[in-house]
Design a protein that fits this description.
By secondary structure, this protein is mainly alpha-helical. 75% of the residues lie in helices and 0% in strands. The relative contact order is 0.13.
Length: 126
C-alpha cells in the first residue's frame, strides 16, 4: 500500500477510536464505566454532563483528525491527552479500567501509532 494511502487508513482508524469512545461510550452512555470513571475523578454531581461533554470533545477530535488541519498540533494534543488521561486513571481508578493497569500499555501503543503516523515520512516493510 502506498505510504499516503496507508497514512490515510491509519488516520481513519485513529479518528474512529476517538469517535467510538466519544459518541458510543460517553455521549450515548453505552459503556457506563466511563461515567463511573468521571464520577470518581471529578465528582458524582456533574458526572453525567461532564461525561457527555468529554464525549462531544472526543468526537470533535475525530473530526479534527480527519480534517488534517494543523495535523501536527492535533497529534501533539492527542498524545498529551491520552497520556494524561491514562496516567490519572492508572493512579485513581485502575479497578474501573477495561484491562486494569495494563491499559497504560495500550495507551502507550496508541500514542506510538499517533506519533508514527504523523511524524514518519515513509514506512519500510522490509
Amino acid at each position: 500500500m502506498p505510504f499516503s494511502k496507508q497514512k490515510n487508513v491509519v488516520n481513519i482508524g485513529i479518528a474512529l477510536v476517538w469517535m467510538i469512545n466519544g459518541v458510543h461510550c460517553k455521549v450515548l452512555n453505552y459503556v457506563p464505566r466511563h461515567q463511573l470513571i468521571v464520577a470518581r475523578i471529578l465528582g458524582e454531581t456533574y458526572a453525567p454532563v461532564l461525561t457527555r461533554i468529554i464525549g462531544v470533545l472526543e468526537a470533535g477530535m475525530a473530526i479534527w483528525i480527519l480534517s488534517r488541519i494543523k495535523s501536527r498540533w492535533c497529534a501533539i494534543l492527542q498524545m498529551l491527552l491520552v497520556a494524561t488521561m491514562n496516567i490519572i486513571e492508572f493512579i485513581a481508578v485502575p479497578d474501573l479500567l477495561l484491562f486494569g493497569r495494563i491499559n497504560i500499555i495500550i495507551a502507550a501503543v496508541f500514542i506510538f501509532v499517533i506519533y508514527r503516523n504523523e511524524y514518519s515520512t515513509h514506512v519500510s516493510l522490509s
